[in-house]
Amino acid sequence: MRVDLFDFVLPAERIALRPAEPRDSAHMLVVGAQGMADARVSDLPGLLRAGDMLVFNDTRVIPAQLEGMRGEARIGATLHKREGPRRWRAFIRNAKRLREGDVIDFGAGVSATASARAADGSFALDFAGDEPVELLLERAGRMPLPPYIAARRAADARDAEDYQTMFAREAGAVAAPTAALHFTPGLTDALATAGIATATLTLHVGAGTFLPVKVDDTDDHAMHAEWGRIDAATADRLNAVRAAGGRLIAVGTTSLRLIESAAGEDGIIRPFEGDTAIFITPGYRFRGIDGLMTNFHLPRSTLFMLVSALMGLDRMQAAYAHAIGSGYRFYSYGDASLLLP
């Protein structure tokens, strides 16, 4: 499909720079067979049915943004995918000043050697020393805010908490599964009281999620791979919900993409561990999920293509126009939508 079909105009003031407080007070646009309705995230227990299940991503964001020196040249690195115990693939700022074999000093006793430059301009970075890389990043790295926020303000101490979900457990993401940022312990208690179950899986979100689509046709776009896992016990729970007539509602496009990667043509979700580069566009037949809670996405992005595949492009263009006109806040720290096809 033509990428320009997924374009829309978003005023800059609609981009949220901080999350709602409290988190579950954020606005939520409900889009379903009966049309659209304005709600709040805190209304979620009354919008779902007993027997439904919400599926969260328990990945934890690491401080994956690094600033260092290669000689006299300043080098920026954003880690986006682990390739080994001490090796990470990274997007590089000022990459023209970096060559394979160069050592970057990130300060605080942290350094890495660049190698294996890829066609997309990224390098592999091999971190020196014996300390776990996670400890090195805690010393030298900072929270990797999305570019549309980082361009307007610097990351600060608040982001270390604001940019983690309450489910964050498995370290490895360089971007938050932001739909789950809206959840609080009080909201999850209310969901349980309403008979709505929850489950978690792990997909380590990569910085590739923010890369713009630079081609004119979706067929020509290459997705970056991300690592995910659904264990056998979780797969059994997900399948049991649907077998009993409940709905699986993915919280975030990351949960959705992993479930769809694990689901067979028969709709059965199987244990999964490995990389996925699934790219969902209109025409895709969903196999594993029955709905999606997600934030509002960038124009011409793979994520807006995904929600258009779920709900229909015309319906999502109308929903986004309503959200913009009604003052909804967009992107990672913004408001939510509940999509029930």
TrEMBL record:
Subcellular location: Cytoplasm
Membrane-spanning ranges: none
EC number: 2.4.99.17
Coiled coil: none
Pathway membership: tRNA modification; tRNA-queuosine biosynthesis
Classification via Pfam families: Queuosine_synth (PF02547)
UniProt keyword terms in alphabetical order: Cytoplasm, Glycosyltransferase, Queuosine biosynthesis, S-adenosyl-L-methionine, Transferase
PANTHER family recorded: S-ADENOSYLMETHIONINE:TRNA RIBOSYLTRANSFERASE-ISOMERASE
Family affiliation: Belongs to the QueA family.
Record's subunit section: Monomer.
Task performed by this protein: Transfers and isomerizes the ribose moiety from AdoMet to the 7-aminomethyl group of 7-deazaguanine (preQ1-tRNA) to give epoxyqueuosine (oQ-tRNA).
UniProt protein name: S-adenosylmethionine:tRNA ribosyltransferase-isomerase
